[in-house]
Amino acid sequence: MEGIMSGITIQIGLPLLVTILFMFALRPVARGLGLIDRPGGRKMHVGEIPVIGGLAMTGGLIVGTLYGYQSVQGFAFFITSVLVLVFIGSLDDRYDLPPSVRFLAQICACLLMVAGAGVVTKDLGSPFFAGLLELGGFSVPFTVLIVLTAINAFNMFDGSDGVAGIQALIAVTFLGFCCVMAGAMQYVPMVAALMGSILGFLVFNWPSKRTRNVRAFMGDAGSTMLGFSLAWLSIEASQEPVRAISPVVILWIFALPIFDLFSSMIRRVSQGQSPFHADSEHLHHVLRRFGLSSRKVAQIVLLTATIFAAIGVGSYLRGAPDGWLFIGWLFVGVIYHVVFGSGLVVRRRHTERRGEGTTTGKYWTIWKQR
């Protein structure tokens, strides 16, 4: 056991140190590369912030997975997919690429995953109390669909300091715990590499006075890389021959970004907009506009993500059927949408004009109107 713990410590510590090294090394050249995020529009931060977290975490992840590359199914395809996403994501951070270009890069990464590495979702567990729900011929398109969902869920969820990073850290921690409990130790090196990389980034991104002078963002390069990597790990860990966790439990582990994504899409469609239309109505926007600091928002995400993941994992380990876990997850998702997306509790319809034609949303609640 002592040897195992020592190995895990190294597997976490190495990518952590490499990520921190890249964060310091890339900071001086960020302006020259044009990887600087300036406030304005939907962006609520103050000052010019280097967008280097995605590149730094990718460096840490690659070095970390090299330490135990034998454990990653289709390692070469995984690294290639990550590099494609990070390259296009970095270009998007710099030049604001059209959505079609980003989507094509995501499709390429998904195809490398399913066709190259053979990482595919073959079943969904037993969410309908009727035995194992096998996908058969729908396995490949369904896998592509859920990986695209994971990538874009993390991309949309990344909008306030520490939020996407802490959600990813909570998710990979619970995934690692399930793997260890199930004896699926082959997934631990990838878990550790992701954990170390995320921790290294959070040293610079967690909102606090100590990080104010070295703050950095992960950008689209980081959020898409994290979404893809976590989707890859989740699929591997939830499928046979070594099922460390039920696919339904994955929904609880990633509940917040999934709820936020689908609630936003439903809200936009109901308002006659494209479901992919960018706006300032995500969870972090709502919480910030209620007067909470970025640190409070990150702390709320930390607490809520931990509670959701603990409910899913804890219930699964205690033998709860997939069907009840799925029903519970849907119930919580409906509540989330009613509160944050439907306009029945948090309303965003009243606006006032300020300055030269700019529009600022005012938040109203049912209890305030009463």
List its salient traits.
370 residues, mainly alpha, two-stranded antiparallel ribbon, two-stranded antiparallel sheet, 64% helix, 4% strand, globular, disordered C terminus
Give an overview of the whole structure.
This protein is mainly alpha-helical. It has one domain (2-369). It is 64% helix and 4% strand. The strands form 3 sheets. Strands 1-2 form a two-stranded antiparallel sheet. A hairpin with a 3-residue loop joins strand 4 (351-354) and strand 5 (358-361). Helix 3 runs parallel beside helix 9, helix 4 (75-95) runs antiparallel to helix 5 and helix 6 (139-157) crosses helix 11. The model is unreliable at 349-370 (pLDDT under 50).
How would you concisely characterize the structure shown here?
By secondary structure, this protein is mostly helical.
The number of distinct helices, counting runs of at least 4 residues, comes to 15
Low-confidence stretches: 349-370
Indicate how many domains the architecture comprises: 1
Give the oligomer, counting copies of the same chain as homo and different chains as hetero.
single chain
Neighbour order of strands in the largest sheet: 1-2
Beta-sheet strand percentage?
under 5%
Count of DSSP E strands?
6
Mean pLDDT: 87
Coarse morphology: globular
* Gap from first CA to last CA: 60 Å
Question: Which sequence of SSEs, written as H and E, runs from N to C?
Answer: HHEEHHHHHHHHHHHHEEEEH
The level of helicity is 55-70%
Largest sheet features? 2 strands, antiparallel
Write down the Rg: 20 Å
SS content category: mainly alpha
